[in-house]
Amino acid sequence: MSSYLDLDLLRCFVMVADTGTLSRAAERVGRSQAAVSMQMRRLESILERPLLNRTGRGVVMTVHGERLLTHARRILRSHDEAMAELSGRSLVGTLRFGCPDFYANAFLPALLQKFAQQHPHARIEVVCAPSPRLLGQLNRNVIDLALVSTADEAAPGVLRIEELVWVVHENAKGWQSVPLRLALGDPDTLDYTAAVSTLETAKRAYEIAYSSGSLSGLLAVVRSGQAIAVLTRATVPPDFRILSTDNGLPRLPRIGLMLQMDEKQASHLTRAFEAHVRTWLPLL
């Protein structure tokens, strides 16, 4: 076994682990898929251990791969922090970032962690609110950057397309009541407008059992078995189940996620975090 681990190999390995496929990792590191595959074989040869299991849907870490991943992240984080600090490239300051509650648990931990690894002295203050409220705060300069939803999935600047789905608590019974009882966000949010317009087009009777900008309140109502809700597929809690057209519900539209900021007032930190989100959000 070699006594030296090349940082470039480790960085490529972490990218493969984060993206789940050799092809997507190759796109991120700017190499061909064959080159990335060769690097992974070289790393396995150095360690004399299998690190990846290739499947038809991507790659899965072996036990040795999982162990290396922990070390690789720590090594690269220390390296990047040292380089940023000594070269003066580490960003400092405070950024106020707006994000809807629906996406906070699904995307924020990974986005913030990865940015902090490169810029440990930058401070990100997170404001959670529905997209319409975030846009209002952005216009009033209360926040610097916002991740928001748009009904137009083909709009310029869309970073990720999400499917809206009907959800119910896994133990809920009798949710198919007439009229259908709904727990939704505020009337100007996309889950509300999509649910109402879709049901009205399908001529399906419904009533609003709960409507509020509070995600915790909305989820509590659904967990009580009193209503169904509309979420994006990526944000469905593990104790919820997705209802399909087989359950007699009409198909919901897809939406887009995009970033908004004031281009004229954006700081260097704001632009750096925007670029970071643009890079990583589609991969999460």
Quaternary form: single chain
Low-pLDDT segments: none
Q: What radius of gyration results from the CA coordinates? A: 22 Å
The CATH topology of the largest domain corresponds to D-Maltodextrin-Binding Protein, domain 2
Main sheet summary: 9 strands, mixed
- Indicate the CATH architecture of the largest domain: 3-Layer(aba) Sandwich
Number of E strands = 11
Q: Estimate the mean pLDDT confidence.
A: 89
In CATH, what is the class of the largest domain?
Answer: Alpha Beta
Distance between the termini: 34 Å
Give the proportion of residues in helices. 40-55%
What's the helix-strand series? HHHEEHEHEHEEEHEHEEEH
Count of the separate structural domains:
3
General form: globular
What's the total helix number?
A: 9
Can you walk through the features of this model?
This protein folds into 3 domains: 7-87, Arc Repressor Mutant, subunit A (Orthogonal Bundle), CATH 1.10.10.10; 93-159 and 256-283, D-Maltodextrin-Binding Protein, domain 2 (3-Layer(aba) Sandwich), CATH 3.40.190.10; 162-253, Periplasmic binding protein-like II (D-Maltodextrin-Binding Protein, domain 2, 3-Layer(aba) Sandwich). It has helices at residues 7-19, 22-29, 33-47, 63-87, 101-118, 131-139, 190-201, 215-223, 268-280, and strands spanning 52-55, 58-61, 93-99, 122-128, 145-150, 160-169, 180-184, 206-211, 228-232, 240-243, 254-261. 43% of the residues lie in helices and 23% in strands. The two termini are 34 Å apart. It is of the alpha/beta class.
